[in-house]
Amino acid sequence: MPMSMRCINVSRRNPGELTVSEIKSLKKGIEVSFSNGGKLLLSPDSYTEFHLYSGKEISPSEYKELERFAESDALYSQALSWLSRSRLSIKETRQRLSEKNADPKLVETVISRLESQHLLDDEAYVKEYLEYRAYPSLYGVKRIRFELSQKGIGDDLISKLSFPEEKEIKRAEEFVKLQARKLSNVPLGQRKRKLLMALQSRGFSLEVAEQATASVSIPFDPKKERTSLEMEFAKAKAHYEVKYQGYDLRERIYGRLARKGYRSADIKQILEENDL
């Protein structure tokens, strides 16, 4: 694989008289110095392409072409640096290169070069995304398809993906089990609503979300629920009894507690205990 490097602009007062004055082999590539003091850093492939040697004269057209090769090498090197840290889609790579204010034609040249070397491969990107991000993060089909589309993956490739319903439900159930523990202090009714909303935000359909919450046993501690209900009842009563009495007070307290997710039977019981 050819090494790639950064282009250094050359100041050309008299480009027709440019001569190669010095050639150095560096870790980043081949540094070519010119008679006017300017330098270009080239990959070994680009250097070989031009048959450069000390004392060789370079015409203006040759120099322009040499600059383009150097710029292409620089873009290629930058792309390799990104890809060494994480896999990118073709669209992501193209966007990043374009942000360097590079010539669009050179960007496409680099993209083609990376694709031919199998360093850019959207099909491989999708497989890696599913295996290391989507499935471990317990995403649903809708979110997976949306994120892949945002990454620039084509509809033709996304449409080929298979999402068996039983596996979709299993991921949703795993998410419910994890979140149910975190919501243990939340009233049971509100906990279920929060779980449904969280599942849908992760890309699961309402049907799958409802099935997952119904099939997973959500931990319930009656004593903890009662203590929480008593605290919320006291807050609601203190808030509403300033303006309301009797039936109106009862209805407002009931509505507030119901919205928080407490069970209807438990709310009615505490209201009766407090003569409301």
Structure description:
It is elongated and about 105 Å long. A hairpin with a 2-residue loop joins β1 (20-26) and β2 (29-34). The longest helix has 26 residues, at 60-85. The chain has 13 helices and three strands. It has four domains: 15-116, Arc Repressor Mutant, subunit A, CATH 1.10.10; 122-158; 165-215; 222-273. The protein has 276 residues and is mainly alpha-helical. The protein has a three-stranded antiparallel β-sheet with strand order 1-2-3.
Shape: elongated
- Binned, the helix content reads 55-70%
The CATH architecture category of the largest domain equals Orthogonal Bundle
The assigned structural class equals mainly alpha
Q: What is the CA–CA distance across the termini?
A: 81 Å
CATH superfamily descriptor of the largest domain: Winged helix-like DNA-binding domain superfamily/Winged helix DNA-binding domain
In N-to-C order, the SSE pattern is EEEHHHHHHHHHHHHH
Number of domains: 4
The number of strands is 3
* Distinct helical segment count: 13
Low-pLDDT windows of residues:
1-15
Specify the biggest β-sheet. Answer: 3 strands, antiparallel
> Going across the major beta sheet, what is the strand order?
1-2-3
